[in-house]
Fold this sequence. Notes:
This protein is of the alpha+beta class. It has three domains: 6-50; 59-161, no CATH class; 173-301, Glucose Permease (Domain IIA). 43% of the residues lie in helices and 20% in strands. The longest helix has 45 residues, at 54-98. The model is unreliable at 301-306 (pLDDT under 50).
Amino acid sequence: MAKTKYLFDHKSLTYKEVTKSFKEILRKVVFIFSGFLVFSTIAVILAFYFVDSPKEKMLRREIEQYKKQYKNLNEKLDNISAVLKDLQERDDNIYRVILEAEPISEAERNAGIGGGDKYAELQGYNNSELLIAITSKLDKLSRQIYVQSKSYDDVFAMAKNKTDMLLSIPSIVPIANGPSRLHTGVDFTAPKGSPVYASGDGTVRAVNRRDFSGYGVVCIIDHGYGYQTLYAHLSKMTVRPGQKVKRGEVIGSVGSTGLSVGPHLHYEVLKNGIPINPVNFFYNDLTPEEYEVIIEEASKVNQALS
């Protein structure tokens, strides 16, 4: 209930009741209604632009989830691409070199990739750029994987026809234990007397029991096809020049002869008299995990020959 207001009349020296005209009442009502209308309008605008509806919240969560999935998929594709690149390099620079076959050209590996209208159906969407990028990457990987698979089929067929050659190529680690250090070859640390194995079929060409460029007792095996292996710092020999040896056959023992500060085997692979990276030839005697450890050592030292 509204309170009654009174004003003091100085002329009559009495209190008189204050009454409001209809215009004043109407003006007050209009003012209050206008304020309410303005406040409501502002509230609606704020809610529309800054407060998400349940459906909008759900859509935002879905969009964020799609972004995460896209990022994860992109990372997986990058990892697959890196693995494929490693397989391609091994194919061209190891397997095909060993089998004396021509490497696959970049044009052949990338044949059929691209095309201006290939992704036309993906145009016109808000996320067209992302869709085209991921689809293009998938298509490229699929094509390259197919080419690499066909290449390995060819390599396998060539290998079947070159069994003797493959048995002769040095492809096993010449010692059973010991971490490695790479320079012009590989140094395998091992206890004195540990057996040293021929890494491939061949003929013993030299057994040097005198100091040979600081290498001490040295054994050199000729594997044919331009390949030779050198085993240095040996303490004991079990083969002689001219002797035929098989892959995995013991040829001597680890020692510390020559300019060696401790027992270890120095091992080199030579192609036409030029030292090449022995790591590339350990494919026949190491698990993928062990091979990766050797590769990591090579990258740390960064002195393995290419």
